[in-house]
Predict the structure.
Amino acid sequence: MIGLGTYAFFWQHSDRVPARLGGSLSLVGAFEATRALGVDLFQICDYAPLEAMSDAELTDAAAAARDLGIAVELGTKGIEPDRLARFLDLAGVFEARLVRSMLYSPDTRPTLAQAEEWLRAALPAYEASGVDLALETYEQVATADLVGLIERIDSPRLGICLDPANVVARLELPRDCVEATAAHVKNVHVKDFAFARQAGWVGFTYGGAPMGEGLHDYPHLLDTVRPREIGAGEREVNEIVEHWLSWQADPETTVRTEREWTRRTIEYLRSTT
């Protein structure tokens, strides 16, 4: 299933953009924008206001998503037991079937041994609830180490959130990351990426690109991971649209570009079905 994530609304959620131009977009506003694009899945990922919402606000947001026909996934950073337990509770509120996380949070950097201990403690509750925990590929942890951790724990509810763009900063190749993780992928973050020469031709910047115009070999990902194939007893691997979009000189251009990239990515994904 195609979905949108919080990072597809990065600038629209920002208070750097005036509200009259679509800035400071609420969570329910993002649900409504998702529905307006004909998409019925939203991943609330690294969205700081979520953890500050009261029980009543959470209940209202979950009801708004249901009323709009929007299924919800959740995302956070870190695997501390208390954090994973809290997000499992939130998954219950939103009827979410997946929580995406990362081994490291802004406050914790566990060793692989500590990470394994924490995950083994948290996973029985996820297994009992039927909620998947998907750990994202990113530059702070080698893909081989992440895959090895998942294989040692060997839980049906633990897998990978595949984002091959991230691992380039570790000098890993996106295609290698895709192939190494394919058997364990439970979620895909969809964005294109490219290098561009800096001004004066001294060095490069690495950032986002309109889907289909950058370096991401998405057909290879589709052929390797096969996210849209549902086998007996298996759940579809959802593809969540997000962007690496830098500020575009002014609020109007930034928001317009963000919306255009979202529209183009949805069209690209639909064209590959």
